[in-house]
Design a protein that fits this description.
two-stranded antiparallel ribbon, binds fe (ii) ion, mainly alpha, 2 domains, about 55% helix, Hypothetical protein af1432
Length: about 230
């Protein structure tokens, strides 16, 4: 018996020879028969058709329990969205790449070499665009960057951390108090937020953007969601 579970999630009540089956984050208990084939097909269509931002956030919340990691995903989304608007790219696609790029982070915590690959598999299951899947692989170092989206995600990922750390050390402890010069000064202090790799951020030049422009765009994007980021 099918029971409607969420926008695209369906749960089947256990019966006869049931077994667990997972499609992305939708766990199904079902009977191993022909019905399986049609259910798989139906699920994929639903996922492709209904992958809205709200549903992506819902999935992400299930996969990332760490609040800071979840906020990092929102920050990356905000940066990618702002960059896409500035560069005349597909805003929805770029934003989704930012939002979901670390979806497997907790799952691959103990096997960091799998980070990005497991996430890419999930995104494939969701039927997301290949450009997004490639960018996710690229950001974790599994593929060389080729497209603008690849470079945008690769360069913005560490910048979100630098901007958050800058906000935290500012006397006002808020994103809205920051300006480009303040973040640029932090960028030049090598020991400050050392995990935010400067060379990686500098690859923004592959987008045709100077560092100060890149910081300005990402900072503006993050300032727009300062309440969600709690800064
Ligand atoms: Fe990230």
């Amino acid at each position: 018996m099918l029971r409607y579970n969420s926008l695209i999630g369906f749960r089947i009540q256990p019966y006869n020879d049931t077994f667990l089956y997972e499609t992305g984050f939708v766990t199904i208990t079902k009977s191993p028969d022909l019905f399986e084939f049609f259910l798989d097909f139906f699920m994929k269509i639903c996922i492709i058709y209904f992958m809205t931002r709200d549903y992506a956030v819902k999935i992400l919340r299930e996969k990332l329990k760490n609040t800071n990691l979840f906020k990092h995903s929102l920050a990356a989304e905000a940066c990618l969205k702002e960059l896409a608007e500035r560069l005349g790219e597909d805003v929805e696609k770029w934003a989704l790449a930012g939002l979901l790029h670390d979806i497997d982070y907790e799952e691959t915590n103990k096997q960091p070499t799998r980070h990005g690959l497991v996430g890419a598999e999930y995104l494939e299951t969701f039927g997301l665009d290949n450009d997004i899947i490639n960018a996710v692989k690229v950001h974790a170092g599994h593929l060389p960057a080729e497209s603008k989206l690849d470079w945008a995600l690769f360069a913005a990922d560490p910048l979100t951390g630098l901007i958050v750390a800058s906000a935290l050390m500012h006397p006002d402890k808020s994103l809205k108090a920051l300006d480009v010069d303040f973040v640029l000064r932090r960028f030049k202090e090598k020991r400050f937020a050392a995990g935010a790799k400067r060379e990686q951020i500098m690859t923004c030049k592959n987008l045709g953007l100077e560092l100060n422009d890149f910081i300005e765009i990402c900072l503006r994007g993050m300032q727009k969601i300062s309440d969600e980021l709690g800064l």
